[in-house]
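Input/output pair, single chain:
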Amino acid sequence: MSHVQQRLHPSVWALAVTAFAIGVAEFIVVGVLPTISEELQVPLSRAGSLVGLYALALAVGTPLMVLLLARFPRKPVLLGLIAVFLLGNLLSALSTDYASLLMGRVVTAVAHGSFFAIGATVAARLAPKGQESSAIAVMFAGLTLAMVIGVPLGSFLGNGFGWRLPFYAVAALAVAGFIATLIRLPSLAAPASVKPAAQLAAAANPAILTMMAITVLGFGASFAAFTFITPILTDITGFSSSVASMLLVVFGGATLVGNLLGGRFASAIGWQAALRWLLVALAVVLVVVALLLPYQGAMVILLFAWGGLAFGISPAVQGGMLATAQRFTPKAVDFASALNISAFNLGITLGEVSGSALVEHGHMALTPWAGVAAAIIAQLPLAWLARHERRSTFSIAMN
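Output:
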């Protein structure tokens, strides 16, 4: 354990437990989508909406919840959000039809986004001076670790013993997170209040909206295909369902590596330059994925490259939003952070909707091409923002 990690407040690790549970809850449906589709007797494309509508509920609910909860002490707010998250997973596990499962997912989603938006600021407040980013990284490591361990294991259990079992397991993790937070997290007053109007102004700022568009397109590029990764691996590539579940470990491991390397890359050359290169690389890899879907050996290698790039983008767009907010809306950095969480999930929704449309018309093998298009289009708002920042810098210098 590093010296930095030893100095972190114990409550940061408590937050990471809940972050892990949330990560499993968000993506577990991807691994058991065919099973849910079969048991609830809904088309695979409609079952895929459990991913997209979850992300949409999160995207819409997060900024609103952050505004509503801004005046309240942080500890009871976080405990309340964990309790709502627990309730949503129990509703999902006990659901008997598509509508009730969707309702459980929506409840879970609203708690998810708000927990991360508020939890990140709490982790930063508890960190030693200069170690705020490390504290936030530890908390978010729980989310990334869910991709490595939680989702593949949940997929294996769900396909072997019923899709409800992973939801019960996530509920148990939520209980652990609640207890750890109750014991470890100190009482924290609400941050100094900023008028809602000043925060909402960020949602109308052209630079903030452009940064959101980059996040939506860049992060969402992977989800047209990733939403249906299990049926793709079984029906097109020819793996068994158990092997497909274990291959999610490959993808999950790549997301962890990509997240770490992507952060270093963005720090080394700047977030804008890093994003330009990462988006090009992602588009190229998705082209190769689309061309080599029937080849098992190639797909194992490509899953790692794809996962690394898909989540390697995350630190660059996170850093980009914070830098953009600090420059153009300095009084609304926290709200801009919440908007970026919305943008991540709007990207997931965009990917799922485009993927579902292709699957519904029998074109599942074309889903990677939708991601190629999104990654290429993302270069346009990125270029506009770079020019906008240069003009702004020139204007300030002239004045």
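Residues 194-399 form a domain with the Growth Hormone; Chain: A; fold (CATH 1.20.1250.20). The chain has two domains: 1-191, 194-399.
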